[in-house]
Specification:
This protein is an all-alpha fold. The protein has helices at residues 2-16, 30-41, 44-61, 68-82, 92-115, 126-148, 150-153.
Length: 164
């Protein structure tokens, strides 16, 4: 239930607050920050499913078409999951770095999507990159608050198979 509340709040912030925090063609991506939080703390398969579901929820609220955000958040979640064991999850520099890197990953997916001629999609090149920077700036604040509320989510540690 707490996941659905987080998804509702993240999509609500993205739809309601992000247009007011706009700079040129970009705005911070609050749903991406929720994806980072889930991928940083949850086991691999639930984190990927959670990222995909957050992307679908954002797709339903946008005009870009179904699957664009869901596909963008997959690589971002996989990158974050791959860093789970080597980063300090509560450090603001970790949040800033993950916000910037996942923002750049989602920006590159959007730019490649816009360059495919048979999709008839257009996207400015500067907007997604500015959004990546703004998301990175917002990441230490938003992820810092979410990390303090981590116990509410009751993340279970990933099971390791031991053969010996």
């Amino acid at each position: 239930i707490v996941y659905f509340i987080l998804a509702y709040v993240a999509v609500g912030l993205q739809v309601g607050l992000a247009p007011f925090l706009r700079y040129q063609d970009g705005s911070p991506n609050f749903v991406l920050l929720a994806v980072i939080f889930i991928a940083l703390n949850a086991p691999r398969e639930p984190a990927l499913l959670g990222a995909f579901m957050l992307g679908l929820l954002q797709d339903l609220m946008s005009t870009r078409g179904l699957g664009v955000y869901a596909f963008r958040y997959g690589p971002a979640a996989m990158f974050t999951i791959s860093t789970q064991e080597i980063v300090y999850r509560e450090h603001p520099l970790t949040h800033l770095t993950l916000g910037l890197m996942t923002g750049l990953i989602t920006a590159m997916v959007l730019i490649v999507h816009a360059c495919l001629p048979w999709l008839h999609a257009t996207a400015p090149l500067k907007g997604p990159l500015i959004s990546a920077v703004l998301t990175a700036v917002a990441a230490p604040i938003v992820l810092g608050v979410l990390q303090r509320m981590k116990r509410l989510f009751a993340f279970k540690p990933e099971r390791r198979h031991r053969y010996f």
